[in-house]
Amino acid sequence: MLLDAGLVPDRLSQVPELARQAEAFGFDGVWTSETQHDPFLPLVLAAEHSQRLTLGTAVAISLARSPMTVAYTAWDLAGASAGRFILGLGTQVRAHIRRRFGMPWPQSPPAQQREFVEALRAIWRSWSDGEPLDFRGQYYKLTLMTPFFRPPPIDSPDVPAYLAAVNPGLARLAGEVADGLHAHPLHTADYLRQVVRPAIAAGAETAGRDPAQVALSVTAFVVEDENEADEVRRQIAFYASTPAYRRVLALHGWESVGERLSQLARRGQWAAMGAEVPDDMLEQVAVVAPAEELGAALRRRYQGLADRLTIYRPFRAGERDEDWRRLLAGWQS
Question: How many CB atoms lie within 10 A of CB 139?
């Protein structure tokens, strides 16, 4: 199991130092997200200022983009990083696609996500093998690729693609067509074991693949002290107020918590939501341990269950450095 960091720079100028420090601390990889910044641009600098780190998006929003533009960006990042880049893709939810990105919401997001990945691979085959581009699907039709627009070959043309998933449908899709699955931080070990892993296996079986070919990359909430507990309760409450995550709550009998949180969110009472997260929910969704025991506690929970683990805490240079060192020491011991 590999341990990764979430790269959250305020400015691109911070990325070189962040990448160097993450590598020096002993992290195996860094991930960027599509929240306040573009997810791809920091990885150009991270590739230049690191030697061994895996670099990936967790995640870039596919339904807000064309497969062709993503194919070019991923190809260039794979080349710049000597094959260390992983393309993580997510669908997002209807409100964000329509109202934040100004794009249409598809009739079937999983179907469009499948086609997006298939289109990417058709484009990359065209570039690496020189075959004509002829992809014809329900959502994308890509049939033009002249030599002028074909990029030069790279040493690692098979760019790994991970898909974000919470519910079984997208997890099965990852098992069918992806190289990995990004699990949302609102999960429990039981949910991964009872829902996500079996769905990946079912999808892989449908496609005639070995489920072991599909990596499970997990992001985990962590709590070291009471102040962090309050912040993590607020984060859990925000996600749990969204109907998309109700299946996680239902597995543990927390449906009434989700309903109360949704009501508070609708009324805009964000400050009151954290108090609605009970202790047992906090302890099953987050890994709660003192700083010196946190690394070992993470390994105990996820060993044999996840292939990669990312801490749901921004990694910033000069911020909580001693906490990170203790966490990594416990992880590696």
Answer: 16
Asked whether residue 252 is domain-assigned, the answer is no
* pLDDT score of 105: 97
**How long a stretch of residues is the chain?**
333
Write the DSSP symbol of residue 84.
Answer: -
Q: Give residue 216's domain range.
A: 2-224+286-332
Q: Of 198, 296, 326, which is closest to residue 1 (Cα–Cα)? A: 296
pLDDT at 319: 85
Domain count, the chain: 1
CATH number at residue 119: 3.20.20.30
Residue 270 lies in a domain: no
For the stretch 114-166, pLDDT in tens is 999 999 999 999 999 999 999 999 999 999 999 999 999 999 999 999 999 99
Cβ contact 258:239 at 8 Å: no
Question: Residue 306: inside a domain, yes or no?
Answer: yes
The pTM of the full predicted model, rounded to 2 decimals, is: 0.96
Decide if 214 is inside a domain.
yes
Please give the full DSSP string across 126-147, using - where no structure is assigned.
HHHH-PPP-EE-SS-EE----G
Helix (H) or strand (E) holding 79: helix 67-80
The radius of gyration of the chain's CA atoms, rounded to the nearest angstrom, is 20
Q: How far apart are CA 143 and CA 214, in angstroms?
A: 30
- Whose structure tokens read 């249409």? 104
Whether the pLDDT of residue 196 is over 90: the answer is yes
Give the list of residues 6+ apart from residue 289 with CB closer than 8 angstroms, or none.
222, 223, 224, 296, 297
Per the prediction, the chain carries an average pLDDT of 96
- pLDDT tens readout for residues 308-333: 999 999 998 788 899 999 999 999 88
